[in-house]
Amino acid sequence: MVRQWWIIVLIILVLEAAIYGLSGLATDDWGIQFQLAARYSARVSLLIFIALFAWVAREGLKSLFQSEQKRSIINAGVFAFAFNHLLHLLFLIITHYLLGWELFTLKTSGGILVYILVLLAPWYLQKKTHLTSASYRWIYGSFSGACLVFFVSYLGRWNKELPFISSKAYFIGSMIVIAGLFLVNMFRIWQERSVKLEVNAKNE
Fold this sequence. Notes:
The chain crosses the membrane at residues 5-26, 38-57, 78-98, 104-125, 137-157, 169-187. This is DMSO/TMAO reductase YedYZ, heme-binding membrane subunit. The chain has one domain. Helix content is 76%, strand content 0%. α1 (2-26) crosses α2, α5 runs antiparallel to α6 (133-155) and α6 runs antiparallel to α7 (168-191). The protein is globular and about 55 Å long. The longest helix is centred in the middle third of the chain and has 32 residues, at 68-99. The chain is an all-alpha fold.
């Protein structure tokens, strides 16, 4: 598992370095460079998130956790999402500093809470060999929070004037995908309601 995580770290570092390098080609303004890097690193996180939870919706979280191999893939996917989003947070902090924006406000408090849950997720999940009711609720609670942050983030940007802004169609399409991902996972939870979780007091 450790070797697998180091490979993920290397791949993401190379990818994020490429994103920053391409952002530097778009403008000479450092603040805008980091803003673009933050924007596109977040889109990498979104792609990882969609791929992971589309698979969870298809297979069912309770079913996936019954297989050690599939559980390992979930852990790797969550780690990739968390590590990439950590780099996104770094780009975001630098952007706010260079552009003189305030980072920690009441408006951003919800997003900061989700960041904390995301960064804790790999550590939390790698300790789990069985899916308990507490971990089941924790995973889907974190998933729901991340869906909300992505959705609200795009909702707040689709009609704004920002440097090198994407088309409205991209934002609307992304919001539809995020909302759809949330709904199909809620439907999967409903389908799995009769599947009993293994009771494991140590893992609770």
